[in-house]
Write a structure and sequence with these properties.
alpha+beta, 8-stranded mixed β-sheet
Length: 185
C-alpha cells in the first residue's frame, strides 16, 4: 500500500502521522526488531500497547502536532511499509521552544540510511512549521548507532546525565545531544 499524502517526503522516505489502524504492522515490525532495539528501546509490541501509545501522538484532528508532542511514522515511499518512527516529546513553547527526540528504525530498514533521511525531514519540520528552536536527543552511552545518527545530523554533545531515564528496569545514564535552529544574523 502506498500513500500519496505525506507530511514531508525525501528521496526514499515519507513521514506521516500515526494512525490506530497501523497497530498490526507497527507491532509486527517491533517484534521483528527486538534484537536491534534491546537494551536501548522498548516500543509497544502488541496492538493493546500500541493503541494508547499512538493515541497520545494523534490529536483530535489527526494532526501530527498533538499538544506537547509530535509523532511521525517513517515509511518507505516505494512501498508504504513502515520503516521506523521519530517522535518529538515534551515540547515546551514560549521562550524555550524545545523538544526531545525519540526514534527507532525497524530491522528491515536498519543500516540503509532511511532513518537519517527521515530525521532530516523531521528537523526541517521542527525548526520550520513547529517553530522550535532546540531539539535534544538523550542517548545511552553504549548506543553507538544512535550517537552516530545524531552526530551525523549536526547535534553536539552537551553533557552527561547520570541516572537520567528508567529503561529496562533500571535508571540509565545518558549523553545529552542537542541541535539548535540556525538563526540568521
Amino acid at each position: 500500500m502506498t500513500f500519496s499524502t505525506y507530511l514531508a517526503e525525501g528521496e526514499r522516505v515519507g513521514l506521516r502521522p500515526y494512525r490506530l489502524a497501523d497497530g498490526a504492522e507497527f507491532t509486527a515490525r517491533v517484534r521483528e526488531s527486538r534484537e536491534l532495539h534491546r537494551p536501548w528501546l522498548f516500543p509497544p509490541a502488541t496492538v493493546e500497547e500500541y493503541e494508547p501509545y499512538a493515541a497520545r501522538l494523534i490529536d483530535a484532528d489527526g494532526d501530527a502536532d498533538g499538544g506537547g508532542r509530535a509523532g511521525f511514522l517513517v515509511c518507505e515511499r516505494e512501498t508504504g511499509a513502515i520503516a521506523g518512527f521519530v517522535n518529538i516529546n515534551n515540547i515546551v513553547r514560549g521562550a524555550f521552544r524545545c523538544g526531545a527526540l525519540g526514534y527507532g528504525a525497524f530491522a528491515h530498514a536498519a543500516g540503509r540510511g532511511l532513518l537519517g533521511e527521515a530525521l532530516d525531514l523531521v528537523l526541517a519540520h521542527a525548526f520550520g512549521a513547529l517553530g522550535l528552536h532546540r531539539l535534544e536527543a538523550n542517548v545511552q552511552p553504549g548506543n553507538t548507532s544512535s550517537i552516530a545518527l545524531v552526530r551525523g545530523r549536526g547535534f553536539r554533545l552537551e553533557g552527561f546525565s547520570p541516572d537520567f531515564l528508567h529503561v529496562d528496569g533500571a535508571w540509565r545514564d545518558h549523553e545529552r545531544w542537542a541541535l539548535t535552529a540556525t538563526v540568521p544574523s
